[in-house]
UniProtKB/TrEMBL annotation:
<dbReference type="InterPro" id="IPR050118">
    <property type="entry name" value="Pur/Pyrimidine_PRTase"/>
</dbReference>
<keyword id="KW-0804">Transcription</keyword>
<feature type="domain" description="Bacterial purine repressor N-terminal">
    <location>
        <begin position="4"/>
        <end position="73"/>
    </location>
</feature>
<dbReference type="InterPro" id="IPR010078">
    <property type="entry name" value="PurR_Bsub"/>
</dbReference>
<dbReference type="GO" id="GO:0045892">
    <property type="term" value="P:negative regulation of DNA-templated transcription"/>
</dbReference>
<dbReference type="InterPro" id="IPR036390">
    <property type="entry name" value="WH_DNA-bd_sf"/>
</dbReference>
<feature type="domain" description="Phosphoribosyltransferase">
    <location>
        <begin position="109"/>
        <end position="250"/>
    </location>
</feature>
<comment type="subunit">
    <text>Homodimer.</text>
</comment>
<dbReference type="GO" id="GO:0003677">
    <property type="term" value="F:DNA binding"/>
</dbReference>
<protein>
    <submittedName>
        <fullName>Pur operon repressor PurR</fullName>
    </submittedName>
</protein>
<keyword id="KW-0238">DNA-binding</keyword>
<keyword id="KW-0805">Transcription regulation</keyword>
<dbReference type="GO" id="GO:0045982">
    <property type="term" value="P:negative regulation of purine nucleobase metabolic process"/>
</dbReference>
<dbReference type="InterPro" id="IPR036388">
    <property type="entry name" value="WH-like_DNA-bd_sf"/>
</dbReference>
<dbReference type="Pfam" id="PF09182">
    <property type="entry name" value="PuR_N"/>
</dbReference>
<comment type="similarity">
    <text>Belongs to the purine/pyrimidine phosphoribosyltransferase family. PurR subfamily.</text>
</comment>
<dbReference type="InterPro" id="IPR029057">
    <property type="entry name" value="PRTase-like"/>
</dbReference>
Length: 276
C-alpha cells in the first residue's frame, strides 16, 4: 500500500533516529513505503535540511548499490552552548555541596531529559572518530555511558570494583585515587572488550583523575586504544591531576568549610569540540 509523503517523513525520521549512525539502504525504504527511489531521495533531502537547520543531526547519503542513508545525532555549537548553560544553572546551587568538595549530581543524572542532552553532547565530540566501546566505572557513570552508547550506536562496558561470578575471568589493575591517595582495584570481564578496540571513557565527576587513570591502565592491559575521556563535571583539585586532556561539560568551584559555597561554569567542552 502506497504511503503518503507526510506519513513517510514521520516514520522515516523515527526509524533513522532509532538506528543512529547505521547505514539504511534506499531499497529498504522503498519496500517499506512502496515508493520509488526518487521519492525516497526527495524525502531524505527534506530530513537532511531539517536536522541541519535546527542543528540536531547530520544526514549522509551514499550512492551506489551498497549505499543508503545514515543519520548521526549531534549538537551544533549554538545548541551545545545552550544545553551547557542549562546544566550550569541546574548545578549552580550551594545545597549540592558535599563534604570533601564533592557535588551532589544524582538527581540530575537520574533525569531522562538531562541524560539525553548529556549523551548527545558527549557523542558529538566523537562522531567523526572510530569508536568501538564506551567505558565507565560502576555507580553514577553508568547512565551517562548508556546514553552516549545509544547515540554512537556502540556497546558500553562497566568497570567494577569487585568481580561478579557471572562475568567469568577478569582483567584487574590497581590504581591510586587522585583525591585520597589510596590504592584501589578495578576489574573488567575479558569478554567485554577485544584487543585493538577504540575506547571512549566517560564518568560523572573528575577530581584527582585517579579513576580515569585506572581505566586508562585497564585499556592498555586489554591492548586497546584510548580515543578520549569526558566527564560530566570537573571539580577543583589542589595538586597535579593523574590524567591530562580530559573534556568536561561543566566545571564547579566548591568551597567547603565555614563559608560553604559552590559555583558552576562551562567546562572546556566547547573549546575542545568546536575548535574552529
Amino acid at each position: 500500500m502506497k504511503v503518503r509523503r507526510s506519513n513517510r517523513l514521520v516514520d522515516m525520521t523515527r526509524y533513522l533516529l532509532d538506528h543512529p549512525r547505521e547505514l539504511v539502504s534506499l531499497k529498504f525504504f522503498g519496500h517499506r513505503y512502496d515508493s520509488a527511489k526518487s521519492s525516497i531521495s526527495e524525502d531524505l533531502s527534506i530530513i537532511r535540511n531539517t536536522v541541519e537547520r535546527w542543528g540536531v543531526g547530520r544526514l549522509e547519503t551514499l550512492p551506489g548499490a551498497s549505499g543508503g542513508a545514515r543519520l548521526t545525532p549531534l549538537y551544533s555549537k549554538k545548541n551545545a552552548a545552550t544545553v551547557i548553560d542549562e546544566l550550569v544553572q541546574a548545578v549552580n546551587d550551594d545545597s549540592r555541596l558535599l563534604p570533601g568538595g564533592y557535588v551532589y549530581l544524582s538527581d540530575l543524572l537520574g533525569r531522562p531529559d538531562i541524560l539525553r542532552e548529556v549523551g548527545r553532547l558527549i557523542a558529538t565530540q566523537y562522531v567523526d572518530q572510530d569508536v568501538d566501546v564506551i567505558m565507565t566505572v560502576e555507580t553514577k557513570g553508568i547512565p551517562i555511558a548508556q546514553s552516549v552508547a545509544m547515540y554512537l550506536n556502540r556497546p558500553f562496558v562497566i568497570v567494577r570494583n569487585s568481580s561478579h561470578i557471572t562475568e567469568g575471568s577478569t582483567v584487574s589493575v590497581n590504581y591510586v585515587s587522585g583525591s585520597s591517595q589510596r590504592i584501589k582495584k578495578m576489574e573488567l570481564s575479558r569478554r567485554t572488550m577485544k584487543e585493538g578496540a577504540n575506547v571512549v571513557v566517560v564518568d560523572d565527576f573528575l577530581k584527582g583523575g585517579g579513576t580515569m587513570n585506572g581505566m586508562k591502565s585497564l585499556i592498555q592491559e586489554f591492548g586497546a586504544h584510548l580515543v578520549g575521556m569526558t566527564a560530566f563535571a570537573e571539580g577543583q583539585f589542589d595538586g597535579e591531576r593523574l590524567v591530562e586532556d580530559c573534556t568536561s561539560l561543566i566545571k564547579v568551584d566548591a568551597q567547603d568549610g565555614v563559608n560553604r559555597h559552590l559555583s558552576a561554569q562551562p567546562g572546556n567542552y566547547l573549546e575542545k569540540v568546536f575548535k574552529k
